[in-house]
Write a structure and sequence with these properties.
Largest sheet: none
Number of helices: 15
Order of helices and strands: HHHHHHHHHHHHHHH
Strand content: under 5%
Length: 286
């Protein structure tokens, strides 16, 4: 992706009022599936930067929509949009039109990832949301607190259950969110050789383990595999479906003896039915 395209897309956000930028983005025509695929193919196979620019421009309104959902963090809307545009350009650069998904579905993860990084680097909670788990709790807790207003123990338990964490995790993050502001970067008084340099948020916040492209690829493959399994299961008779479900797919696996008692046959007969069903599933999925 050329620096010219990136500069043009970002400079538009900061020039003039945000209202005029939003209005301008709304006037850019959206692409249908055929147009998007043609442009993406030209970029992916031929490196056509004009095609890349058209893809970016046609999705600016989508970035604005996502950035608006982060307005509650007290950060400039224009800056949120600008960071989202960075994510959009990264997505366009990596988008493979042959995968079979629309660009907007692929780009949403990149856009949110860039905005998340910006929020965490500029909001006061930056010094405590240092792991992926804490980041997830931070953003989800913000949404829940907006609805609840303040927490009593019962509300803490509700949020903990909704987010799949312990009550102590919720209370700890809530207490961190009430801390006073502190600088993200080192101050002018900080000496690089002193202890402060080792603990400034700018020194340890970056999460290099996160790979959005890998995540999207894995989710797409998981969805594809689930569809194939569902279609393959439909080729089995009802009893075979139940045996496979009980033996392999249920959270609490059922024993051969329990299934044998259920169908009033021997455990060896259930094992044979299971083996035959698995062979049919394998053949259907291949």
């Amino acid at each position: 992706m050329s620096d010219t395209i990136q500069s043009n897309a970002l400079m538009t956000v900061s020039s003039g009022s945000i209202e005029s930028y939003v209005a301008s983005a709304a006037r850019i025509p959206m692409l249908n599936a055929e147009e998007e695929h043609e442009l993406a193919s030209r970029l992916y196979h031929e490196g056509d930067l004009k095609a890349a620019q058209k893809l970016i421009m046609s999705h600016l309104r989508f970035v604005i929509h996502i950035a608006k959902s982060y307005s509650g963090y007290g950060l400039p809307h224009a800056d949120l949009i600008q960071e989202g545009n960075v994510g959009l350009m990264k997505a366009v650069k990596r988008f493979n039109p042959e995968v079979g998904v629309r660009l907007v579905s692929f780009a949403v993860h990149w856009i949110k990832a860039e905005i998340h990084e910006y929020v965490l680097k500029n909001w006061r909670i930056v010094k405590v949301a240092t792991t992926k788990a804490q980041r997830k709790l931070f953003f989800n807790l913000r949404k829940n607190k907006k609805r609840l207003g303040w927490f009593n123990q019962e509300e803490v338990n509700v949020v903990a259950k909704e987010l799949g964490v312990s009550s102590s995790d919720v209370l700890e993050m809530e207490s961190r969110m009430t801390l006073s502001d502190s600088s993200f970067d080192l101050t002018n008084d900080d000496d690089d050789s002193g202890s402060t340099a080792n603990f400034a948020p700018t020194q340890y916040l970056e999460d290099k383990s996160s790979n959005v492209a890998t995540y999207v690829e894995e989710k797409n493959w998981e969805s594809h595999a689930n569809r194939k399994l569902k279609n393959a299961m439909a080729t089995l008779d009802e009893r075979s479906q139940h045996i496979v479900q009980a033996r392999w797919l249920a959270d609490d696996k059922t024993t051969l003896q329990d299934l044998a008692a259920h169908y009033q046959v021997s455990a060896e007969r259930v094992r044979q039915l299971e083996k035959n069903a698995m062979k049919k599933l394998k053949a259907a999925m291949e």
